[in-house]
Amino acid sequence: MNRQLLLFCIFIGAFTLSKAQTQDLSEYFLRSLQTSEVYGNKIPKKNIKIKDLEDSRKSVWSAWKEANSNFQEIKLPAILPLSDSIAYEWPLVDEDPMPFYYGSKGKKPANGYPLFINIHGSGPKEKEWAATIAWSKIYADAPSLYYIPRIPNEKRYRWWFIPEQKAWEKLFRLAFLNDDINPNKMYFVGISEGGYGSQRLGAFYADYLAGAGPMAGGEPLVNTPPLNFRNTAFNLQTGEKDFMFDRNKITKQVKTIFDSLSNAYPGKFIHQVDLQKGKGHAIDYTLTTPWLIQHTRITNPREVSWVNFPMHDRYRTGFYNLAIKEHVNIDKTTDIDRALFEFAIDSTTNSIRMNANTLNKITNEKGAITKGKLLFYLDENLVDLNKKVTLYVNEKKVFSGKVKLDSKNIIESCALFYDSNRLYPASIEIDFSKL
Questions:
Q1: Mean pLDDT throughout 231-259?
Q2: In terms of domains, do 143 and 277 share one?
Q3: What are phi and psi of 242, to 5 degrees?
Q4: What is the pTM for the complete model shown?
Q5: How does pLDDT run across 149-161, given as a tens digit for each residue?
Q6: Are 279 and 133 in contact (CB under 8 A)?
Q7: Which of 250, 245, 238 is CA-nearest to residue 276?
Q8: For residues 375 and 383, what is the distance between their CA atoms, to the nearest angstrom?
Q9: What is the per-residue pLDDT across 280-289, written as a single tens digit (0 to 9) for each?
Q10: How many domains does the chain have?
Q11: 240 and 162 in one domain?
Q12: 63 and 112 assigned to the same domain
């Protein structure tokens, strides 16, 4: 037996696998890392008892860590003080390589560094990159860790294009595997073009983040659905006199909407949106990261809103505990290019009520989802697994009974989310064609 198989097989608790099953798991994780495919592949299945959940998760996570260790890629470098950091580089798919600085400020906390992904503004890339590195050293947020990338190509000056998306997802995956990083304190921040990027990326990846802090930006809300920030802190700082591209007007709109959402859902839309008086495009940038670092990611919220919108023609396949198993009837080439999923879990009745609709990006008109499949993942943080669970979708009861606990769910949710806080033992499949 080779070293990898031996490491996978040493677990003799709840999740012991045969040699063949262990090989299947190894191949599955490697394939998921290479292709991002999660469903439809051969995978070990094993019923789990509630008392054995923790051991089962530890076994799967250890196998995932080993697979990542053996996966051929450039990893995160060792952490140096930010003042001593050097330029590193990651290759990107269908794009020039992306250089980055990676360094810390202050002594590492016991639960790991908060991680700021600080993306720069448009202009000559070396100059903008240098300015962003300088500001990162100034911000009063220590102890903290910074990942500061440089735009790969000035002709494609957007932080949310697909090659960059792949880089952020790699960064999340490696951060979750790194004991030096606090997985519940990661933030996107940026100035100007970096402000636009951090706002859009914040909405797209809100379930991975504790917060997002765009500065001197003001992304149109069609590109950054506010509902996605339901459990993620949001801070937008813009100059009162920043008239270009209506940045000040858009910021006023953002404030109005976030204030309204905060009133409608008390405690769920934590935000600070300010127009800095007398300021133009240049503002006080030092206010954002000290505010953000106070906030911690909510890993398994019982109330979620997810607008699944396309970013550079690409959709997310999961958000919090929801997973798209088969694409629903939305089309990125039309105005009906997004879907809205909202749910609330009632712990007293162990029931879930979900609304699921298509959404017109221009009119916000809702429509019916008539095809596709959604997995609703569950664990002991969301429901009482010892009791019957009832799920309603658009007021129709689609499931009622005790959910089955299976290793397959833990393995697939691990490959989908990369997140030790989201290793779900149970799932309910929603087939929209049958509703």
A1: 98
A2: yes
A3: -90, 85
A4: 0.95
A5: 999 999 999 999 9
A6: no
A7: 238
A8: 15
A9: 999 999 999 9
A10: 3
A11: yes
A12: no
The set of long-range contacts for 343-348, using a CB threshold of 8 Å and a minimum separation of 24, is 343/303, 343/304, 343/376, 344/302, 344/303, 345/302, 345/303, 345/382, 345/383, 347/302, 347/383, 347/384
d(CA 102, CA 84): 10
Which residue, 99, 87, 86, is CA-closest to 153?
A: 99
Region 268-296: mean pLDDT is 98
pLDDT tens figures, 3-32: 444 444 434 345 677 788 888 898 999 999
Residue owning tokens 């953000």: 292
Residues in the chain: 435
Q: Which residue range is the domain that position 32 belongs to?
A: 3-70
Residue keyed to tokens 């914040």? 202
Q: Are 75 and 89 in contact (CB under 8 A)?
A: no
264, 380: one domain: no
Q: What is the pLDDT of residues 364-420, one digit of tens each?
A: 999 999 999 999 999 999 999 999 999 999 999 999 999 999 999 999 999 999 999
User: d(Cα 336, Cα 348) in Å, to the nearest integer?
Assistant: 36
Residues 253, 255, 257, 259: what is their CA dihedral angle, to the nearest 10 degrees?
Answer: -160
Q: Are residues 331 and 265 in the same domain?
A: no
